[in-house]
Every structure is written in C-alpha cells, then in structure tokens.
Amino acid sequence: MTHQVALPAFYNDLDASFAEAWNVVAAGVTDRNSPAHTPTVGTVDADGTPQLRIMILRAVSRDSRSLRFHTDARSDKTAQLRDEAAASILVYDPAAKTQIRLSGRAHITSDGDLADTAWSGSTPFARRCYMAEAAPGTPIAQPSSGLPEWIEGKQPEEHQLADYRGNFAALMFQADSIEWLYLANAGHRRARWQWDQTQNLWLGNWLVP
Q1: Residue 154 contacts residue 121 (beta carbons within 8 Å)
Q2: Sorting pLDDT into bands at 50, 70 and 90, what band is 2?
Q3: How far is the C-alpha of 78 from the C-alpha of 81, rounded, in Å?
Q4: For position 82, what pLDDT does the model report?
Q5: Nearest alpha carbon to residue 202 among 12, 13, 59, 18
Q6: Confidence band (pLDDT; 50, 70, 90) for 4?
Q7: How far apart are CA 103 and CA 86, in angstroms?
Q8: How far apart, in whole angstroms, are the C-alpha atoms of residue 13 and residue 61?
Q9: What residue ranges do the domains of the chain occupy?
C-alpha cells in the first residue's frame, strides 16, 4: 500500500502559494536557521559577468516588495548597483521543498535615515567587519581578516565604531518578479508573479515545473 503524504493547502492555490513564498523569504529575517537567512544575491559587473555571493537577509517588506542587506560601501557590488541595477536573489529551502527566485532592481544607500537606522540596529560585533582598513577584495601579501590588530578577536565599543560608519551601506532590493517551485512526489508546482506597475498589483500564473 502506498502511503499518501498530505499536500499543503497552497499546493493548487496560486494566491496561497504566493503568500507562502513571501513567508519563506520573510522567515530568513528572524530565523538564523532558515536558508532564507543567507540567500544568494546576484548582480552583474561592468564586463557583464554575473557575480554571486551569499548575504545575510536583514529585513523584508511585502508591501514595498523590498529586501534589505548590509554591505561594505567600498565593495565591488557597491559600484555595480549605483543606478538601480538589475539584481536577483535565490532562496532554496530543502525542508520546505521550495525554491524561490526574485528578480528586480537594487541600489546602495550609505547616507540618510534608512542607512543610519540599519547601522545602529546592528550589533557592535556585526559592525566590526566595517573596521577593515582596506576595501573588501583588496590583494594582500599575507592572510588576514583585514581588521586593525587592536580589535582582532574583540567586540568593539560604540565610540570605537563611530569613525567607521562611512564604510557601511544598505543594499536595497525591490522585486519585480517572483518565481516559485515546490517539489512534491505527487507532482511539482511552479508559478511566477510579475509586478504590474500600472495596476499596482502582482499578476501570477502557473508554469510547467
């Protein structure tokens, strides 16, 4: 006798699948064990070469279709994203049997209330990486964290971090497209939603997995 696994309520429901996709992504903000906490973020460099890296998800807003990450303002990706550049985000959650691909535009913000709030809302230890003396990716003669020797292995105090605020930036991503793939023995399910600017809403349809 074949054991039938109960299918989730969203299995054949397009709207419920859309809600579940956002739920999976949003879980990455507060749950460090969620795969969505460390999604893959893709950009394109000046030569047209795709660049991928794992980043920590800091905030999600379904209403504004946005995701927030933190980065070094001196990094290569900062230059790649100065003018609302194309970007993509990939989340794969094996426990949820779900892959989510988000496509849209991203930009870097290093000044203003948003960046200030993001900076102050991070722990001192998390901000320590912005104390690196040279930009990420700078060639060095010997292996090193890049941090000043006096702060190696220590948690900085607020007054010690003040001079390094300029190295910090928020990477803001806004989704224009969300693609969802749910894996099931009964049959996979795949869907895509596109943001319709004129109607100010998401339009979705099923896809062949």
Answers
A1: no
A2: low
A3: 5
A4: 72
A5: 18
A6: low
A7: 8
A8: 22
A9: 14-133+150-183+190-207
Q: Residue 64 corresponds to which tokens in the numbers above?
A: 């504004």
What burial class does residue 88 get, using C-beta atoms within 10 Å of its C-beta: 0-12 exposed, 13-18 middle, 19+ buried? buried
Give the position of tokens 């003018």: 83
- Right CATH for 14-133+150-183+190-207 from 3.40.190.10, 2.30.110.10, 3.90.226.10, 3.40.50.880: 2.30.110.10
Q: How far is CA 148 from the centre of its chain?
A: 28
Could you identify the residue written with the tokens 């943001």? 195
**Residue found under tokens 């709207």:** 15
List, as one string, the DSSP characters of the chain.
Answer: -PPPPPPPTTTT-HHHHHHHHHHHHHHHHH-TTSGGGS-EEEEE-TTS-EEEEE----EEETTTTEEEEEEETTSHHHHHTTT-EEEEEEEEETTTTEEEEEEEEEEEE-SHHHHHHHHHTS-HHHHGGGG-SS-TT---SS----S-GGGTTSPPPHHHHGGGGGGEEEEEEEEEEEEEEE--TT--EEEEEEEETTTTEEEEEEE--
Residue 41, judged by CB atoms within 10 A of its CB (0-12, 13-18, 19+), counts as: buried
Percent of the chain with pLDDT over 70: 98
List the structure tokens of 33. Answer: 């064990």
CA distance 10 to 182: 10
> Which residues, at least 6 apart from 86, have a Cβ–Cβ distance to it below 8 Å?
43, 44, 103, 104, 105, 106
